[in-house]
Amino acid sequence: MFGAVRRTGRTARERVRPKHGVAMKIPLTDLNTMPEGDFVALLGAVFEHAPWVARAAAARRPFDTVAGLHAGLCAAAAAAPDDLRRALLAGHPELAGRAARDGMIAADSIAEQAVAGLDRLSASEYARFEAMNAAYRSRFGIPFILCVGRHGRASLLKAFEERLESDPETEMRTAEAEVFRIAAIRLGRLVEADGTLRTTGRISTHVLDTVLGRPAAGVAVELVEAVTGTETVPVARAVTNADGRTDVPLIGGRPVPIGVYEIRFALGDYHRRIGMRLPQPPFLDVVPLRFGVAAPEEHYHVPLAATPWSYQTYRGS
Amino acid sequence: MFGAVRRTGRTARERVRPKHGVAMKIPLTDLNTMPEGDFVALLGAVFEHAPWVARAAAARRPFDTVAGLHAGLCAAAAAAPDDLRRALLAGHPELAGRAARDGMIAADSIAEQAVAGLDRLSASEYARFEAMNAAYRSRFGIPFILCVGRHGRASLLKAFEERLESDPETEMRTAEAEVFRIAAIRLGRLVEADGTLRTTGRISTHVLDTVLGRPAAGVAVELVEAVTGTETVPVARAVTNADGRTDVPLIGGRPVPIGVYEIRFALGDYHRRIGMRLPQPPFLDVVPLRFGVAAPEEHYHVPLAATPWSYQTYRGS
Amino acid sequence: MFGAVRRTGRTARERVRPKHGVAMKIPLTDLNTMPEGDFVALLGAVFEHAPWVARAAAARRPFDTVAGLHAGLCAAAAAAPDDLRRALLAGHPELAGRAARDGMIAADSIAEQAVAGLDRLSASEYARFEAMNAAYRSRFGIPFILCVGRHGRASLLKAFEERLESDPETEMRTAEAEVFRIAAIRLGRLVEADGTLRTTGRISTHVLDTVLGRPAAGVAVELVEAVTGTETVPVARAVTNADGRTDVPLIGGRPVPIGVYEIRFALGDYHRRIGMRLPQPPFLDVVPLRFGVAAPEEHYHVPLAATPWSYQTYRGS
Amino acid sequence: MFGAVRRTGRTARERVRPKHGVAMKIPLTDLNTMPEGDFVALLGAVFEHAPWVARAAAARRPFDTVAGLHAGLCAAAAAAPDDLRRALLAGHPELAGRAARDGMIAADSIAEQAVAGLDRLSASEYARFEAMNAAYRSRFGIPFILCVGRHGRASLLKAFEERLESDPETEMRTAEAEVFRIAAIRLGRLVEADGTLRTTGRISTHVLDTVLGRPAAGVAVELVEAVTGTETVPVARAVTNADGRTDVPLIGGRPVPIGVYEIRFALGDYHRRIGMRLPQPPFLDVVPLRFGVAAPEEHYHVPLAATPWSYQTYRGS
């Protein structure tokens, strides 16, 4: 593998973000054996603008698992002198800040902020962020750092407001913890190894037709996120397969942003299609299951067992 | 009783709609025995601007039940010559029409149209009704007649549009059937007798705490009606009592307007109050049960049996 | 009323247990005003062979409620000197003892012991009771006293074995508490007054057809009690009415004996009768709901909401 | 592979049933290419005492799937002259017959009859079978043939009694169909190939703790089969794992015998173990889910979602 790099003449970094965009994961075994320079080239960006963290961690090799590698990087960062640790925090971009808009931040941050929709703020929302960013920076002397991939817009604002009330010492620790979370997600995308870092969660569903005692196939389902009490944004759409499930999770392969969601099942359409006679309007037509996600790295299985006149749900597994 | 009237010196009509507004019901037995004049005075308004219906029905007395009385009135109307029957229909006010706005229609109609919110139309909604009324009148030569108490605004518009496509003969029968329904509701309010007319329905609920195996007391519930896909209007608010029920039905004592409703249960608040530890946000916080009502005279019991992680509902009894 | 007694010439006792067997309840107001002699004649048997309790309580009249009357009687018993209280306990018959078999105990006790089936013991069961009675009497110097109406045979034996291990002082209090419970039930049968004593519980059910969204009528249900792990005895049979309920509770008007019960629903027969096609054998045919009763004075509502392929139950209200 | 056989010097038959008892499956590709003699040696026993069926089918090779192979064998049998087809049926052993007891039947039949417990009949049950076998043979001139692996004892007796009432022609077809089913199961055990024959079903379960919103681990479950209305025989025992499931299906890898089953969940023990306070006796202790199996080749997933006061089940997937 390493030799291959030489042949292709690509840099270590290029190997991981090839032109065609598909990230190629690098085996942990290679990371354990490659020269420090390549190690830093590959993992330097895991901590924003702070390749020194990877350099310090290189000495701690080999690592058995990617979790061990993450722990090693965090330990290296935590072991640094205070001014350096502070500089690490200071090096992060502001959420929805000018830097973000002007593309002056690391590629990873751009992608991550986009996930939370921070690249699509209205003028007033943008202004609000600017104000909070300014207030935060003047109070703590660093930008507000949050692992945005783990938040919906509502929970993000809530966290921002709460942390503005925090005391400096607590806030330093909180900010560093968020930096470590960001690092874990980036590492999970970069490194191939057994023993995952548990940086991704899942929302899945399953529709059962309890009149016929079999999975309900062909049920249109939509997942929306409640941005505010009334406003919702669509997240995913799917149709149940022969097993009553969706072919892929409604959210998967990434943290499930903390927030309130609603899965809407087109149950009435399903019952009409299989020939059941329903009143007009039907007792059950579009069935909404509303639930909150508090743990982005967990699996939220939200099944629906239904007849035209009854249904039940629960957090399954 | 009749003598009493003389003593009070009130007219028969006054007896039923006393100044202080509380309707006093008149016993069927009295209606069976009183002079035709009083009978007509009391029931003349049951058919809009058509006391002749009551007069014709007076001869058919006595009636065993209020249902029998209603049948007698309808039979009298149906037995009339076509031009008179047509005049009966023509005598009705337009829905949300100028007459309604200018208070030139019977008191009952004013109250009934208010129920459907037709007295609170926006200018554009009002214009739309005006247009449909005009189209209907030019096509069928009578105003559009509907027992509005049995409809939500959405189902009312749907019915209006469908009936505009109908053929004249069918439409005459449909309009007359609606007149009879209106009469039944007015009669139910006026007459006291065994054997109701089944002119009222009900929406009720019941909350069970299946963690503790007992009714959930103190749960705030709200009933809203879906006016459109997204817009809802509040209908009723209540808090569950010690038996997990609301002291009075969320809708009762009148037809349940055809439409789509949602009962929203403040389940998270309940669980927090009884001391359960919940994640933030909780998996279940405000639980919406959405259901359609197709039969205004039926009972829709929509219970919720829940834990912080599961719930079920069904159309109960 | 009191005069009436003189006229009929019946004794006070006769008034309450007339020949034709239907117990006539005596109003609390009468008990409050009648001569002490009649009061004692009527309530003397509430405490087994101890009319002195009623006599002592007579002085404490009047009582507002039957609960107050019960408290007054218990207070009178508790205020008596130790030897008298001990004699009160000693005066009780042994459970399933020779006295019971030979009819030498109070009528109430005979009826009460019959409820628990203690009048139908096998020779070996009878021998077991004799042995436990002997062991208990030799250890505590009084017969084993238990409010049998509150126990199934299994829980009765369990209580017997546990109390054999108790210490004398605790056991005296326990025995007296049981005497008070027995008194409450007897009083509830004798006296007519507002504010019941809560001496009765209930087992009820409700069957919902969640395929059709309406109550399931005509479902045969059977209540059995689990005497042992495998052996059961039938307690009640019924068929659901139009509302999906049984016309009377499966158990009611008396304490629900502590124990394990099973309601068996002939669901398959119901589904076949309403014309649903079922496999042979059906997925759900006779559905057993097994549950335990720990509080004889409470209401156990155990509903079934079912389709041919699913069902749910919960302790309702 | 084939060469390997030569080297080991084992016969084709030995390859499939090695001394150490573990059946080694033979790839379909080998069956397609091997000499007719080996093909017959390997598959001759699929049709009881009728290697001629395999010989006739050999000419029809190659087969794409094991299902195709089965179809080929059945076609070969069906294409044979009537007397030969009749001889094929006549060659089968009687159910629970003397031949079975005296070990004079094919090894496969012995194993298959053991599954249904026909090798453990009481004297009276044995006598009953003898009588039915005699009646059947005298009526149809062949032994009663049934794919016993697909039946519980109750359904087996039911089928026996019904078929005794059948007419000869229908019964010949029914018997042959059973022979084909037996062949399918034997073939599934012998041949390794893609595209299974669907000769096996499954009973599985899943326990959800809806108080905590997670799988219930460590719940003891027992599967019993109802032999008669009251008598049951244990089939399997297991304890749920961290995912609330059993590590292996309660029944799997074979047809699920037609019959009535009960899964019993030690729910009370589970709730006590996780520290919930329960009354004595608990409302829910051992929860029985009773269900019927009509399709031996299907998957019966019977989950339990429960709290100490409620539960629900359905046929899942």
From TrEMBL, chains A, B, C, D:
Database matches in InterPro entries: Hydroxyisourate_hydrolase, OHCU_decarboxylase, OHCU_decarboxylase-1, OHCU_decarboxylase_sf, Thyroxine_BS, Transthyretin/HIU_hydrolase_d, Transthyretin/HIU_hydrolase_sf
Family matches, as CDD domains: TLP_HIUase (cd05822)
One GO process term, biological-process aspect: urate catabolic process
Residues covered by the Oxo-4-hydroxy-4-carboxy-5-ureidoimidazoline decarboxylase domain: 32-187
Keyword Electron transport carried by entry: no
GO MF, any single term: hydroxyisourate hydrolase activity
Keyword rRNA-binding among UniProt keywords: no
Catalytic activity: 5-hydroxyisourate + H2O = 5-hydroxy-2-oxo-4-ureido-2,5-dihydro-1H-imidazole-5-carboxylate + H(+); 5-hydroxy-2-oxo-4-ureido-2,5-dihydro-1H-imidazole-5-carboxylate + H(+) = (S)-allantoin + CO2
Pathway(s) the chain acts in: Purine metabolism; urate degradation; (S)-allantoin from urate: step 3/3
Family matches, as SUPFAM superfamilies: Transthyretin (synonym: prealbumin) (SSF49472), UraD-Like (SSF158694)
Family matches, as Pfam families: OHCU_decarbox (PF09349), Transthyretin (PF00576)
Domain Transthyretin/hydroxyisourate hydrolase: 203-316
Key words, A-Z: Decarboxylase, Hydrolase, Lyase, Purine metabolism
PANTHER family the UniProt entry points to: 2-OXO-4-HYDROXY-4-CARBOXY-5-UREIDOIMIDAZOLINE DECARBOXYLASE-RELATED
NCBIfam families: hdxy_isourate, UHCUDC
Protein's recorded name: 2-oxo-4-hydroxy-4-carboxy-5-ureidoimidazoline decarboxylase
